[in-house]
What does this fold into?
Amino acid sequence: MGTTPVEPGTTAPGPKTNHIGLPVLDYKGGKTTLCAGCGHNAISERLLEAMYEMGVEPERLIKLSGIGCSSKTPAYFMSRSHAFNGVHGRMPSLATGAVLANHKLLALGVSGDGDTVSIGIGQFVHLMRRNLPIIYIIEDNGVYGLTKGQFSATADLGSRLKTGVVNDLPPIDTCALAIQLGATFVARSFSGDKRQLSAMLKAAIAHGGTSMLDVVSPCVTFNDHEGSTKSYKYVKEHDQTLQEINFVPHFEDIAVDYDSGSTLEVTMHDGSRLHLRKLEEDYDPTNKIGAITRLTEAHDKGEVLTGVFYVNPTAPSFIDMLNLVDQPLATLPDSMTRPPKEVLDAVMAELQ
Ligand SMILES: Cc1ncc(C[n+]2csc(CCOP(=O)(O)OP(=O)(O)O)c2C)c(N)n1
Ligand code: SF4
Ligand SMILES: [Mg+2]
It folds into this structure.
């Protein structure tokens, strides 16, 4: 076994680190137990890289999820971070509680199309209307992978299971829904598109409100056959991309040459810059109605439309709206969070 010789009087090169001085190993998680080739594994890798490249301190991240193959994935990256794997479809309430208790944490919700759009739809819609600072990812394969591949509510009309069963209900478009409800960064990507997904994830980390990313993520075991509209083949053949996305983090002082007629520059909450080079002339990601119309057209044409559909980096977040004190509630002493004994005694006396 050979090691690289080190010149006397010099030190061996240390591992490569990110801008807060951590090696990528500090961002690793447990070994995946998902099927080889599952789209969800690729999303976990992109998440790990994005957190590393953005220099997110592992202890500042809280990973929240529900139930499903997708909801298991937070175990496969960033073991040093906080995590809570909750009840099926109920992750939004956990996330809301955690962020209100400590708004200095960076919240990452990882869910599936079943977890979010079937059993969890009630929780999802209320989360989207609050602009809670959270990165919310739907790993969307159109089926309940964990329970052997039944259709979920994002499955397309006419899509066929391996057993021959045809879906006879129209899908719910999570992106159109999130925009209509008030989410302030809404995008769709594909687990197989490394470049696009990485840029979107970094922009979501830099955004101070609700980022909702629907990532089409094929289930190789139950929904990757001919007749499925969430297979690798179908997505590659029907992908329609809205913009080329470039992300410049706030800590990199890089000047980017772009033609302002064809590229929109968005300054994110933390000062990072997102460049969206339009591949569709008329598309304006600050126009909600236009975004919903384009999504509806894409659906009618059978396109898998990807890109940043809507962005509003200046809307007040739930934390702003509640006027929370800067110090996290979870770290305030009892003397500041509990009424003193005399006040409680007076309340009790009134009730007697
Ligand atoms: C209350 C409740 N109902 C039903 C189930 C069964 N169940 C487990 S995972 C799941 C669906 C998961 O689908 P999805 O969120 O799309 O995740 P995937 O496995 O496809 O990644 C269901 C219905 C459960 N665990 N709890
Ligand atoms: S069953 Fe499908 S969703 Fe679950 S791990 Fe396997 S490929 Fe992924
Ligand atoms: Mg699913």
Observations:
- The CA atoms of residues 68 and 146 lie 5 Å apart.
- The radius of gyration is 22 Å.
